[in-house]
Amino acid sequence: MKTWQWRALKWGCLAVSIGSVVVAGWLMWSADDATLPDVQTHQQLEQASTQVEKPLMVERKGERIIWRLKADAAKQEEGMMRLTQPVLELFTENDEIIHVQGTTAQFEPLKRNIHFQGDVTVDYRDWHLASDDLYFDSTRDEVVVPHRFIATGKDTVIKGRGLNVNRKTQLVHIKHDVWVKDARPDRLGGLP
Q1: pTM of the entire predicted model
Q2: Which is it for the CA torsion 184, 190, 191, 192, positive or negative?
Q3: Less packed terminus of the chain by CB within 10 Å, N or C?
Q4: Is 162 in contact with 151 (CB distance < 8 Å)?
C-alpha cells in the first residue's frame, strides 16, 4: 500500500471514531429526555402497587390469636407500612379484647411493632384511655403510652405520663405525674 493510502485510511478511521463519539454523546443527551416519562410511569406504577385497601393482619401463637390489626388503607414504605384509621384488637389470656384505634399508625412487619399517632383511644372493660400516641411492643408484649394520657373508669379518673401495660399479665406501671380521682372513698380504706 502506498503512503497516501495509509494516510487516507488513518484519517478515515479517525473521522469514524470522532463521529461515533459525537453520535453516542448526542444519543445519550437526547435519551435522558425521552426516557424520563417512562421512569415516572414506572415509579407511579410502583406507588400504586404498594397501596392496599382494607388490610388485615393477624398475629397468632398456635391456635390463639394474640392481636388483629386492620385499617382503612395501608401504604408500603421502606421497612414499614403507614396505616390510616388503624384499629388494633389485643386479646388477653381470657380472650377479652383490648380495642386500640388512632388516626394513623406505623407498622413494622419484621419486628411486629405498631406505633399509633393522633387521637389514640383504648377501650377495655369499663376503661377508656385517650392519648396522642401509643406503641405496641410485640417483643415485650406491652402497650406503651410514652407521653400524657387520661384514663377514665366507672368511678375513677387517672392522669399521668408514661404508661406501660403488659398484655399477658395486665400489670400496669405509670412512670410520672400520676393524678387519681376516685368517686368511691370506701376503696381508699374508709377515709372521708
Answers
A1: 0.69
A2: positive
A3: C
A4: no
| H-only helix segments in 3-136 | 3-49
Biggest distance spanned by C-alpha atoms of the chain: 124
CB burial of residue 91 (10 Å; 0-12, 13-18, 19+): middle
- DSSP character at residue 123: E
Taking only the tens place, the pLDDT of each residue in 67-114 is: 999 999 999 888 889 999 999 999 988 889 999 999 999 999 889 999
Answer for the pair 83, 70: CB distance below 8 angstroms, yes or no. Answer: no
Under a CB-based contact definition with an 8 Å cutoff, are residues 118 and 103 in contact?
yes
Report which residue type is found at 181: K
Which residues are registered as beta bridge partners of 158?
151, 180
The H or E element containing residue 72 is none
Cα(141)–Cα(111) distance, integer angstroms: 12
Task: Give phi and psi for 94, each to the nearest 5.
Answer: -95, 15
114-117: long-range contacts (C-beta < 8 A, 24 or more apart)? 114/69, 114/86, 114/88, 114/138, 116/86, 116/88
State how far the Cα of 178 lies from the Cα of 162, in Å rounded to an integer. Answer: 9
